[in-house]
Amino acid sequence: MIKDKKIAFIFPGQGSQYVGMGKDFYDTIDISRQTIDTACRLLDFDLKHVLFEENTDINITEYTQAAMLAVSVAMLKALEEKGIRSDVNAGLSLGEYGALVASGVMDFETAVLLVRKRGIYMQEEVPPSAGAMAAVMAMDTDTIYNICEVVTAEERSAARRKDAVVQIANYNCPGQIVISGDSQSVAKASERLKEAGAKRVVPLNVSGPFHSKMLIGAGEKLGEELKGVVIHPIETPYFSNVTGMVVNESGEVKELLKQQVYSSVKWQQCVENMIRMGVNTFIEIGPGKTLSSFVKKIDRTVTVTNIDKAEDLEKVMEVLSC
Fold first, then answer.
1. Can you say how many angstroms the Cα of residue 166 is from the centroid of all Cα atoms in its chain?
2. Beta strand residue intervals within 227-302, DSSP E
3. How far is the C-alpha of 80 from the C-alpha of 111, rounded, in Å?
4. Rounded CA gap, 229 and 227, in Å?
5. Given 16, 32, 86, 93, the catalytic residue
6. Cα dist from 41 to 38, 55, 117, 231, 283, whole Å
7. What are the residues whose beta carbons fall under 8 Å from the beta carbon of 186, sequence distance 6 or more?
8. Catalytic member of 180, 185, 207, 211
C-alpha cells in the first residue's frame, strides 16, 4: 500500500483493441518488448503484424484475445518494474487473464496460449451473424432480466426454437447492461426494452454472442484445455467475473474460467466488492479507458487512472505519490 492507497489493477476486455496498441512500450521499454517477443515465439500467427500494422485481423476474436493479453501484460511488467504492486486484481472477461497473471495464478506463457485457444473456441462455436449483443442504457436490472426471460420463453415456444436465448451478458455499471444471445431474440428483446422505457438500446459490433448460453460448447472445450494447465497459489487476491467475489482457493480457478465463457460478467459487483475491501485506487492496464469510465460511474469517490501509452507510466506515478 502506498500512502494509504489500496490499489487494484484492472484489465480491459475485448473491444478496447486498436492497431498500434503497445507500440511505444515495445519500442522504448525492454521488459515490455521481451514480453511481446515471448508471445510472438509462442503463438501461431504474426502477433506483431496484428498489433502494429494496419489489418482487420485485430478485430477477429481468435486473434484479438491473445493480442490484448500480450499488450496488457507488457504494460503490467513495465509498471511492476517501477516497483508498483497491487493489493487486488480484476479484469473484464478476457481481462481476467491479465488479472490471473498479475496475481501469480498463471504464468504469462500459459495464459497467452490459453486465451489463443479460448478465442478460437468462441469464434468457432457460433456461425457469423447467428448471435448478437446490445447495450441497454438507463433501465433497471430487474426489468431487463425479466424481459429477456419472457422473450427467451416466447421464442422457444411460439417460434419452436428450443435453443433460442437472450440474457444479461454484462453488468458494466449503473445505467449500462449488455444483453447477448441469438440475433432474433436479441432484436426482439431490444424492441421490448425500448417500449418498456430504456433510454437507448445500442447494437454492438461484435463477432459473437459472448457470455451467453450459446457459448456453452466453447466453455466445455476450454474446460478440457484447462485440465492440463498448472494453476499456482494465489499471491494477490483477484475477483471472478462469474461471482463478482474474491477467489479464495486456487482450486476454484479452472471451473470459474470455464463458466466465465457463457456466464454473465458481474463487473459492477466486482468493483463494488473491491471498494468494500478498502480499494480506493484503480489502475486500468491496457488499451483504452473503458473500465476507468465504468469505475467512475460506480463510485466517483475513488481514484481512477489508466495506462495505455508509455507516457502514462509517469502519470500513474504522480497519482500514487499524491
1. 20
2. 281-285
3. 18
4. 6
5. 93
6. 5, 20, 16, 22, 29
7. 131, 132, 133, 134, 166, 179, 180, 209
8. 211
Mean pLDDT of 55-82: 96
Closest to 141 (Cα-Cα) out of 113, 189, 166, 174? 174
The per-residue pLDDT for range 219-270, each reduced to its tens digit, is 999 999 999 999 999 999 999 999 999 998 999 999 999 999 999 999 999 9
Residue 1 has pLDDT above 60, yes or no: no
Q: CB-based contacts of 153: which residues, under 8 Å, 6+ apart?
A: none
Cell numbers linked to 198: 430504456
Q: What's the pLDDT band for 318 if we cut at 50, 70, 90?
A: very high
Q: Which residues contact 303 (CB under 8 A, 6 or more apart)?
A: 5, 280, 281, 282, 319
* pLDDT reported for residue 130: 93
Q: What are the start-end ranges of the E strands in the chain?
A: 7-11, 88-91, 131-137, 166-173, 176-182, 200-203, 281-285, 303-307
Is 180 annotated as catalytic? no
pLDDT confidence bin for 159, thresholds 50/70/90: low
Judge contact between 288 and 12, C-beta under 8 A.
yes
User: Would you state the pLDDT for residue 224?
Assistant: 98
Q: How far is CA 288 from the centre of its chain?
A: 12
Q: Closest by alpha carbon to 196, among 154, 136, 153?
A: 136
**Does the annotation mark 183 as catalytic?**
no
Grid cell locating 186: 436479441
Nearest-5° Cα angle at 267, 52 to 296: 80
What pTM value is reported for the model?
A: 0.96
Contact of 186 with 167, CB cutoff 8 Å: no
d(CA 22, CA 27): 9
